[in-house]
Amino acid sequence: MEDLDGLRAAVQAHFEINTTVAHGFDHVARVVKLAEYIAQHENYDITEASVAALLHDIGRTLQKHDKGHGPAGVPLASELLDRFTDYNHGTKQRILDAVRDHSQAKTTGKLTHIVQDADMLDGLGAIGLMRAYTSKAYLPAYDPDNIVPTVGKRETNVHDLIAFQLEWVDMMHTNTGRSMAQKRGVFIQEFLRRFEQEVNCNDFLTLESKGASQQQEVSNYRLEHCG
């Protein structure tokens, strides 16, 4: 007996009761797709990876704070697996291990690594930027005196959080996840570079490369808007 549609509906119902901006069911649904893609290219059981990803953040529906949400979700994940699947002990345990450990720094097990990679990938690229800004809306966007974000900080401003998320590119476990992360990381780096240029009004082509009328247009804009 395997009712994966019922399992998905039950998980979604929990998130509708208790959710957050950056860790709602939309995040879960994206992580499921990413985990399925990674599993397919890493020769791992796609359904098992999908179920583990579906349950990975269920602990967030049980508490408001982030810390320990993995272990907190294990009892509920176990209950849902018993209700909607008939997985043997080994399969169920691998899934529960992934739920428990997906946010830990040091982990083992291919399934856990697939879920971790999928989870981190959702913190990179355009979606990662969106989640950073929405989840930390109470923080300043950036430090005007130090526009380049500071690596190693998370609660100072949004861009420092983005710099922290960029470190995930080098933390991927699977070859597939690593390749995807590198592409999404380049997008973020380009965004931060462009952001710094725009704050400094340096996002124009150099005056030397423009015609006289364009040079005057850019000069007028800088005088008006950039001081």
The helical percent reads 55-70%
Residue stretches low in confidence (pLDDT < 50, at least 5 long) are: none
The CATH topology annotation of the largest domain reads as Hypothetical protein af1432
Report how far apart the termini are: 69 Å
Q: Roughly what fraction of the amino acids lie in strands?
A: under 5%
What's the architecture of the largest domain in CATH terms?
A: Orthogonal Bundle
Over all CA atoms, what is the radius of gyration? Answer: 21 Å
- Quaternary organisation of the protein chains: single chain
Mean pLDDT metric: 88
- Number of helices in the DSSP assignment: 10
The run of helices and strands is HHHHHHHHHH
Total domain count: 2
Q: Give a short account of the largest sheet.
A: none
CATH classification, class level of the largest domain: Mainly Alpha
Q: What is the overall silhouette?
A: elongated
Structural class: mainly alpha
Question: What is the fourth-level CATH superfamily of the largest domain?
Answer: Hypothetical protein af1432
Q: How many runs of DSSP E, i.e. beta strands?
A: 0
